[in-house]
Please model this.
Amino acid sequence: MSETPVIGVLALQGDVREHLIALASADAVARPVRRPEELAEVDGLVIPGGESTTMSKLASLFGMLEPLRERVRDGMPVYGTCAGMILLADKILDPRSGQETVGGIDMIVRRNAFGRQNESFEAAVEVAGIEGGPVEGVFIRAPWVESVGAQAKVVAEHGGHIVAVRQGNALATSFHPELTGDHRVHALFVDMVRAVG
Model:
């Protein structure tokens, strides 16, 4: 892989544009991914925030669920924010009926754990592996992680709850760093993609 990795953003639903901008500013070639053949052309993938049940249904409808699982199993770097975190969880505590996940991180996630849309908030979050002080986290109907398995590493907590986890080439945050103009989390992910190349 060249020094400039090609990183896709799963563009079925959610805040795709903001992630494309954040990745580009972190020196990656960023492109939307909607189909399996587009997924095959990227070095890494961001699964954005949105509505996790809708995203899982659309991924299934577009024939993306199995290809996503396969690429993640094969070690493709992947980063999920909010709904993306839910999709990367091996287990959801309170899944909607028919809701499936891509998996890849040995964690149990609780959907909408921080409350409803009107209870959204911003908070400074210390993220292990990111220098320069805390990251501003935007929490919108955000999940939190109830527990992690032996392979998963907690990289951030807020209010006594796990809000960022890393396992191998997979990273997940319950907050949205793409909405803040601080692109250090995306830069960390771009570095993870480069390290695999």
